[in-house]
Structure formats: structure tokens, C-alpha cells
Specification:
heterodimer; A: 288 residues; mainly alpha; two-stranded antiparallel ribbon; 2 strands; B: 253 residues; alpha/beta; Rossmann fold; 2 domains; 6-stranded mixed beta sheet
């Protein structure tokens, strides 16, 4: 039972990093992204490959994998700067499909559908993180760093300009702000942290394959942000906690795994529909 | 001394010649009005000067340096601020935030500075708050500073936009129909505000349809019709200019 709680904590933590980072670019920056899961996957594969092939120190691996994810984010952000919301959805969705396809087909790098097994344990200075509780502590550390960073940025002048850009990019440039630069930087940090979440997942599962990062993953993360409350600090955290907890808690209901998987999807959809009907600003969202 | 100059400015939208051979010199410290019937190309001229539209032909000089071809945010940074015909405030930011975000060179607008809050930053944050409040004071909206901008009435939103433009510390203010849609009271307030801005040393170029305002405060008037300048001069001359009267009222035939 205790092990299950740690498992829950780890998953909640990883998804909190994902939802908080997505919320920064989406909720505060107004940059539509339906491919956050792709950067999650890029970070996971980058981290896995770095630790399998290069054996670099964990801190280096995290920064490197995050940077790779971040640069991919910039690669998407650049050409899509002037797309309006509908086309941005299409473009980011397409990117998500591309990433999955690449992960699934670049056999020489990713072993395609065979996935990457045997991802080594994390060595942090002289510690080996091979216990569930120590892994949970590590995740919590990263969650704390993530929340600290994004909260600072949101409250800083950078965050205010970003919000202004969300409200009206034309007006933002009319007060001297380089809108393109702010959007790209916001995307960079958001996808960087998504990559870090990926690294954590890779080491937790010790095996990743492309199906872990299908396009639905991006919708799940988006759902957490929307459900919890876009554009607030606590919203995405609440969204991640609740939406990880509910399906995982289903394990105790005693259903066979076949039904549980479908029930999870059903529940997820039900929560989204409920929030969109009853409280569009999200659970902790502000009604302005 | 000429602060802003356009030379032979032209703008095509496909086959439509929106602005043609538009040359204007705006003197430093003056209040210049840009008038003309609807569709004459006035806002297009504004959009060309402020970099929102690429110039098809001609050049624009600000303080003697060419600015056509620069992106809008760079033009603002060089000292030209504008307001929009249909107000473009930041709806879900408070009035104070609307103005604060426009201030120049704020520390903390980079990722690193946003993360590491130095004591200098905190000091500057207080200074900036003061500056923003001053801008709000000038337009008489200090009392609304905590209100979300979208909750304000239209006229007040226009004032927020002016305060916000002031926060960028411009030398030249481009006001696009500042009194459109305002009551008589508010119109007079805005008129006095513009006058006050001139006293502070600002140069103003504004588009306006309200002739009382135009005649009341302008030093110089430039008249556009169908994208071309048809007249230019002090209010007295323009008032009696035949071509101008025809443009607005049509000719007797």
C-alpha cells in the first residue's frame, strides 16, 4: 500500500511538472499547444539515450535532455508565431504526430516500437536512487523547482508582459514589447520542463516506447490544465493531482485491467465535459 | 524643428491605392490634426508610421532617422506611441497593470531577472508603480487602478490607452480618434489632456472627426481624401478651404 502511495506521488509529481509548464505558455501566454506530450516524449527519449549510451552525470543528462526538448519547442514556435488559435491547434497537433512517427520509425536511434529497455537507475552524486521513496523525493524536488520557477516568472514583469501578449499581441507591440521574442522564450522554458518530466518518467519506468507518448498524452495534459484552471498558479497543480488520482484509484475497485483502462478514459472525458459545462474557468480558475 | 517626416509615402493593397504621395512634416512640440472623410487613408498612414503595415513607396523619418521597415516595437522604443481607433487595452489586466506593463526598460522582463529578484529590482518596482500612477493621475483614473480594464466604460478605456501610451515615454504621440464615441464632458477632458501633453513638451499627431476639437487645439491641419493630401495649413486656412469643404460635404452641382 505504501508503495502504491509512492507510485501515486511520483505520477502526480511528473504530471504536475507537465501541467504547470504547459499552463505557463498556454494559460499565461495564450500560446496554443496540443503537443506538450511530444516534448515530454522527446525529453524521455533524450534522457534515456543519454543515460544508456553516454552515461553522463544525472544533472548533465537532465539539463541536456531538457535543452533538446526546449530547442524542439523553439523549432515549433518560430514558424507558428503568427498562426491564430485554430491553425495553431492544427500545427501543434501535427507536430505531435510527427514526433510519434519519428520515435516509432527511427529504428537506429530509438529502436522504434521495441522501445528502450533497461534504463539505468539515477545516480545523484553518491546516491543511487533505487528505492521508491527516494525516487519520490527526487520527483518532489523537481516539482518544487518547477513550481518555484514558474511562479516567479508569472509574478515577474516577464509574466505580466506575457499575459499582456495573451490579451492583445498588437497592443503589446504597441507598448514596445518584442512579442515574438517573449513567445519563443515562454515556449522554450515550458518545453524544457516538459522534457525534464520525460527524463523522470523514463528512469521511473526503466522502459519507454513510443506508445507512452501518443498524441492522447498531450490531450491528457491539456485536460489537466483546463480542468484545474488555466492562467492560475494552483489550477494546473490541482488538475494534475485530481486527474492522476482518480484513474489510479480505480485499481482498488477491482475491475479487470481491460475495463479499468476504458473507464479511465471515460472518467477523464466526463471530468472535462463537466468542467466545460459547469465552470469554464476551471476548478480554481478566476471568473473575470 | 521637424520631428516626424514622411516623404512620398504610398501604400497599395493589391490594386487599391490606399495612400498616395503622402508627404508631411510634423514640427516638434506641435499639435497636428490629420483629417478627412472616412476611408481617406488616415489610419493607414498611422499604421505605416508605426510599422504595422509595410510601406509600398516612400520613406518615413523620425528625428532625422529612417524608421520605415522597422517592426512596431522598435518604433515605439525609439519614441513614438499610438492609440487605436477601437480601443485595444488588455482586458483581463487591471488598469494599473495595463499602464505598468508599458513602462520602459523594466527590470525583470527577462527570465533570469524574473527568477532572481534583486533588491534593485524591488526598488525599481516601487519607482515604476509611482510612474504608472502618475500616468493614471494625468488622465484622472487613479481611482480605478485596481479595476479590470474590461470592466471600464468605453471612454475610460480610451483614457487608459492614453495613459498607457504615455508610460512608454514617447516624444511623439499618435492618437487615433481620441474623442470618438465620447460624451461632451469627456471630449473636453481629452481636449484639455492633449493640451496638457503639449505643455509637457510632447508632439501630437491625431486623427479626428470632431471639427470643434480639431479647430480648438490644432496648430496645423493636414487633410486627406482618397489617400491623397488635398490641403494643409493652420486651422484658419483649412476652415475656409474649398476643396476641404467639398471633400466632406460634396460639391454643389
Amino acid at each position: 500500500m505504501v508503495n502504491f502511495l509512492f507510485h501515486l506521488l511520483i505520477l502526480m509529481g511528473i504530471y504536475t511538472i507537465l501541467s504547470v509548464s504547459l499552463n505557463f505558455m498556454l494559460g499565461y501566454g495564450g500560446i496554443i499547444s496540443i503537443c506538450h506530450g511530444a516534448f515530454f516524449g522527446i525529453g524521455a527519449y533524450a534522457g534515456a539515450l543519454i543515460s544508456l549510451k553516454l552515461g553522463l552525470p544525472f544533472v548533465v543528462e537532465v539539463v541536456l535532455a531538457g535543452t533538446i526538448a526546449g530547442l524542439c519547442g523553439v523549432m515549433v514556435a518560430g514558424p507558428t508565431l503568427r498562426l491564430d488559435e485554430d491553425y495553431m491547434s492544427l500545427a501543434t497537433y501535427a507536430f505531435g504526430v510527427i514526433v510519434f512517427t519519428v520515435l516509432n520509425n527511427w529504428h537506429s536511434l530509438t529502436r522504434g516500437p521495441l522501445g528502450l529497455p533497461g534504463i539505468p537507475k539515477i545516480h545523484l552524486f553518491s546516491f543511487v536512487v533505487d528505492q521508491l521513496w527516494s525516487f519520490a523525493c527526487l520527483v518532489i524536488l523537481f516539482v518544487a523547482i518547477t513550481i518555484f520557477c514558474f511562479t516567479s516568472w508569472v509574478r515577474s514583469p516577464f509574466g505580466k508582459v506575457l499575459t499582456a501578449i495573451r490579451e492583445d499581441p498588437v497592443a503589446a507591440s504597441a507598448v514596445g514589447k518584442n512579442v515574438a521574442s517573449f513567445k519563443i522564450i515562454a515556449t522554450l522554458v515550458s518545453t524544457f520542463f516538459a522534457g525534464i518530466a520525460g527524463v523522470l518518467l523514463a528512469h521511473y519506468l526503466t522502459f519507454i516506447d513510443p506508445t507512452t507518448f501518443v498524441i492522447q498524452e498531450s490531450f491528457v495534459i491539456l485536460g489537466m490544465v483546463v480542468f484545474g484552471g488555466m492562467g492560475t498558479i494552483l489550477g494546473p497543480i490541482a488538475g494534475a493531482l485530481i486527474m492522476v488520482f482518480i484513474p489510479e484509484a480505480l485499481r482498488f475497485v477491482g475491475l479487470s485491467s481491460f475495463y479499468a483502462a476504458h473507464l479511465r478514459q471515460l472518467l477523464f472525458s466526463a471530468l472535462i465535459i463537466l468542467i466545460l459545462l459547469k465552470r469554464t474557468q476551471g476548478l480554481l480558475g478566476k471568473e473575470i | 524643428m521637424t520631428l516626424l517626416e514622411t516623404k512620398g509615402l504610398g501604400k497599395n493593397f493589391g490594386g487599391i491605392l490606399a495612400v498616395r504621395e503622402f508627404s508631411l512634416k510634423v514640427k516638434r512640440g506641435s499639435i497636428t490634426a490629420l483629417i478627412g472623410p472616412n476611408g481617406a487613408g488616415k489610419t493607414t498612414v498611422f499604421n505605416l508610421i508605426t510599422g504595422y503595415l509595410p510601406v509600398t513607396r516612400g520613406e518615413i523619418f523620425f528625428r532625422g532617422e529612417r524608421i520605415d521597415g522597422l517592426p512596431p516595437h522598435k518604433i515605439v522604443q525609439s519614441g513614438i506611441a499610438r492609440t487605436f481607433q477601437l480601443v485595444r487595452i488588455f482586458p483581463r489586466l487591471t488598469v494599473l497593470e495595463n499602464v505598468t506593463v508599458a513602462l520602459r526598460n523594466r527590470r525583470g522582463e527577462s527570465l533570469w531577472e524574473g527568477l532572481v529578484k534583486t533588491r534593485r529590482q524591488k526598488g525599481e518596482a516601487l519607482e515604476n508603480r509611482e510612474k504608472a500612477l502618475e500616468c493614471l493621475d494625468q488622465v484622472g483614473l487613479s481611482g480605478q487602478k485596481a479595476q479590470y480594464a474590461q470592466n471600464l466604460g468605453f471612454g475610460q478605456q480610451k483614457l487608459v490607452e492614453i495613459a498607457r501610451a504615455m508610460a512608454t515615454e514617447p516624444e511623439l504621440l499618435l492618437l487615433d480618434e481620441p474623442t470618438a464615441g465620447l460624451s461632451q464632458d469627456m471630449t473636453t477632458s481629452v481636449q484639455n489632456l492633449i493640451h496638457g501633453l503639449k505643455k509637457q513638451g510632447k508632439t501630437i499627431l491625431f486623427i479626428e472627426h470632431d471639427m470643434r476639437v480639431v479647430m480648438g487645439i490644432s496648430n496645423w491641419i493636414c487633410v486627406l481624401n482618397y489617400g491623397e493630401k488635398i490641403a494643409e495649413g493652420p486651422p484658419e486656412e483649412i476652415k475656409n478651404n474649398q476643396r476641404v469643404i467639398e471633400a466632406y460635404l460634396g460639391s454643389e452641382s
